[in-house]
Each structure stands twice: as C-alpha cells, then as structure tokens.
UniProtKB/TrEMBL annotation:
Residues 259-350 form the Hydroxymethylglutaryl-coenzyme A synthase C-terminal domain. Belongs to the thiolase-like superfamily. HMG-CoA synthase family. InterPro entries: HMG_CoA_synt_C_dom, HMG_CoA_synth_N, HMG_CoA_synthase_prok, Thiolase-like. The gene is hmcS. Signal peptide: none annotated. This is Hydroxymethylglutaryl-CoA synthase. The lineage of its organism: Bacteria, Bacillati, Bacillota, Bacilli, Lactobacillales. It comes from the Bacteria. SUPFAM superfamilies: Thiolase-like.
Length: 387
C-alpha cells in the first residue's frame, strides 16, 4: 500500500506589493530584488488574515471534493501562532466541521513545521489505511519595514490531504534528517517580527541540504540522475536556486537541464507570493505539479529546512492521472485576483496588522465571498467568520 498526497489546496491574501516599486522606495536597484534575491512580488495580509483563516481557506479549496468523514487527524505547522496555548488547528477544525473524534494539534519548528506534520500524518495513515489526515502550513513572513529581510516577506497557506492510494504523490518512508541548535532566525516572544542572520542562515541551509541529500542517496542507492525534479523550501527563490546548483554540480548536461527546468517550474508561485515559511516547500511542489512536465512514476526529491535548525530530505513518486486532482486555472486566478498596493499602503497595512486589535471591535474584511477571515476578538476570544 502506498501513502501520500491526495489533494493540495493553496490560499494567499488578496493584496500584493510589487518588488520593483519596493526597491525604488528603499533606494535599491530593482535587479537586486528581481534577480539577486529572485522575487517579483510578495503577498500581503491585512489584519483580517492570519494563520487560522488562511489555513481554512487553503483547505476549502479541496474539502468539497473528498470524504471529510475519513479525516481523523488534523495537524497545523505554523510559526505565526495566534495563541501561546490553544492550537490554531482547533479553530480550523470548527470551520471545517470535522468530527469531535479528530486528533488535532499545532507543531512548531520554524519552516520545518509542515514537514514534521507530513511525516506524522503519513506514518499514521500507514497504520490506519482507511483513515486520512489533513496537514496545513500557514504563515505570515514578517521581518519589518526597511530591514534586509523585508524583500523576503509574504503570506499564505498550503493544505494537503494525506491518504492511502493517493492521487498526486506517493511518499516513501525513507528520509534523511539533520538538526543543530543554532541561531540563524528566530522570533522572540516579545517581537511580532522575526530576527535573522540571513547570510548565516543561507550557509546552514546549503550545508544541511548537502548533508541530507548525500545521506539520502547513500541510504537508498539513488543517484541525482534518478530524480525528475528536486524542490526546496523557498524563503526566496534564489536560496533554492543555490541549493539546486550544488545538486547538479558535475552532472551530465541533460540532467542539469532537466533539474534546472523543473526547479524553475517549482519557483513560479513563490516568486509572486514570497515566503510563506512552513508552507513554502509545498507551494514549490504545487508550482512544479502545475507548471512542470512531470510524468507518472517520476521521482521528486523534497528538501525541507526550518531555522534553528532542522533539515530533512525525502522523496515522492508522481501518481498517474495526478493532473485530475489539480486545478491550475483556479490557482492562477487566485494569484491574479490580488490587488497591487502602493508601498505607502503596504507600510500602513503592515503596521496595522502588527497591533493587537482592540477587544470587542469587529474587523471587516474586503475579501471575496466565501473566504474566511479573522473578525477581531470578543472578550479576548478570537472570532472567525466567512464572507
Ligand atoms: N543585480 C543583480 N543582483 C544583485 C544586485 C543587482 N543590482 N545587487 C545585489 N545583487 C545580488 C547579490 O550579489 C546577492 O547575490 P548572491 O546571494 O548570489 O551573492 C543577492 O543579490 C543579495 O544581495 P545581498 O547584498 O546579499 O543582500 P542583503 O544583504 O540585502 O541580504 C538576504 C539578502 C536574502 C540575506 C536577506 O534578505 C535576508 O536575510 N532574508 C531572510 C533570509 C531568510 O529568510 N532566512 C531564514 C529562512 S531559511
């Protein structure tokens, strides 16, 4: 029996910032952002979109196409938690009307959180093949106005349904993990924005990729040439590009071309959405599936990285007929519905979203009909509503 991804849903808020305009406002050469960092746009959440509402919206992209009664595990990876105690997944569970028998919790290890959830969910379904699990990654990447990390912000969520005999990608049990207690990126309890040593973080990311990819190949006897695609956690697309350059080093021209083309396909959405922390690797997967040239049984390698730091490499095989489980037109429409905001509007919305809204004041969302949003707090309890 094979276990893996049967559905994949994506959501990003309805506003974006153009990177050329941001570069001009910051006095930088736009090519630094567009080429040097590899970002064209970044999605922006106002105060009505948070990890919970985005996670609900991502899951609703496929919820009506599957038997939700088989779901008895819901895991949420996020580093934009809405409460120090209660799991964000409980709000999601209510909105999705999942049964009270569902086991649900939140995982934190920086951008690795969704992968941790994926591993738990796959093992769970291997033991309980009649059941299925939802795993969500949902984040607001915030470094602060005028910081060097500003260009690598973003907002969005990816949700996957894990089940036996999946329709999109089977996930192998082999994996290579590597961890180290370091300080390359973190968000202290008293800070709404992340602190980062970007250069150090890049070094560690690349080091962990080399280690886990080599270890995975050693364990499984697979070669670089066996992969149709290698995809990466993309805090900004240049980071994955650097890892891919290491992966294809000394390979034949045909392999280099194949892995470069598939990398480019995997980075299409991240280039426009920006960093979505936990969900970023899975946005790369969706982008590859919808913009690449994959065939049944193709092997896809996935590199997950969470600062602090935790890395893991694993692989999956593409399932015949996988395109029947995707909707690229709808995902493109989701991106295209976003309204561009000026840098001044972005700065205003960014600062407003950092503040805790006043208790008992209802927030109004400008999202389209059907989407969920954060409607403010009532007696310090978070309220979520559907438009
Ligand atoms: N045209 C083309 N490329 C240009 C350029 C121009 N005019 N100006 C600069 N560049 C290139 C640089 O050469 C560099 O490329 P390289 O990385 O291949 O060397 C790149 O643009 C970035 O320039 P740099 O001067 O290093 O930028 P920076 O000091 O502003 O830092 C980051 C960039 C990415 C390190 C910073 O945005 C950051 O810390 N982001 C957060 C990282 C992160 O998310 N880490 C944790 C999660 S894994």
């Amino acid at each position: 029996m094979q276990v893996g991804i049967d559905r994949i849903g994506f959501y990003t808020p309805n506003k974006y910032v153009d990177m050329t305009e941001l570069a001009q406002a910051r006095g930088d050469d736009p090519n630094k952002y567009l080429i040097g960092i590899g970002q064209s746009q970044m999605s922006l959440a106002d105060q009505t979109q948070d990890a919970v509402s985005m996670g609900i919206n991502a899951t609703l992209r496929y919820a009506n196409q599957v038997d939700m009664k088989t779901v008895d595990l819901l895991i949420m990876g996020t580093e934009s938690g809405v409460d120090q105690s209660k799991s964000a997944s409980l709000f999601v569970k209510s909105a999705l009307k999942l049964s009270p028998e569902v086991r649900t919790f939140e995982i934190k290890e920086a951008c690795f959180g969704m992968t941790a959830g994926m591993m738990i969910a796959c093992d769970y379904v291997r033991l309980h093949p009649q059941r299925s699990a939802i795993v969500i990654g949902s984040d607001l990447a915030r470094y602060g106005l005028g910081t060097s990390g500003e260009v690598t912000q973003g907002a969005g969520s990816v949700s996957v349904l894990i089940k036996a005999n999946p329709g999109i990608l089977t996930i192998g049990a082999d994996h290579s993990a590597y961890s180290s207690d370091i300080n390359d990126f973190w968000r202290p309890n008293d800070s709404p924005v992340a602190l980062v040593d970007g250069k150090y973080s890049t070094e560690v990311y690349l080091d962990f990729f080399k280690r886990t990819f080599a270890d995975y190949q050693g364990q499984t006897q697979k070669q670089t040439s066996d992969f149709a695609a290698l995809i990466y956690h993309l805090p900004f697309t240049k980071m994955g590009y650097k890892a891919n350059r290491l992966a294809v080093d000394q390979q034949d021209t045909a392999i280099v071309q194949r892995l470069e083309q598939s990398f480019t396909a995997s980075a299409v959405y991240s280039r426009e959405v920006g960093n979505i922390y936990t969900a970023s690797l899975y946005l790369s997967l969706l982008s590859l599936l919808e913009n690449g040239q994959l065939k049944a049984d193709n092997l896809v390698g996935l590199f997950s990285y969470g600062s602090g730091a935790m890395g893991e490499f694993y692989a999956g095989q593409v399932v015949a007929g996988y395109t029947d489980h995707l909707n690229p037109e709808k995902d493109l429409a989701l991106l295209q519905r976003r309204q561009k905001v000026s840098v001044a509007e972005y700065e205003h919305l960014f600062n407003e979203a950092l503040r805790q809204p006043e208790d008992n004041v209802e927030l109004v969302s400008d999202e389209e009909e059907g989407y969920w949003y954060f409607a403010g707090c009532k007696d310090h309890v978070r309220q979520y509503k559907q438009k």
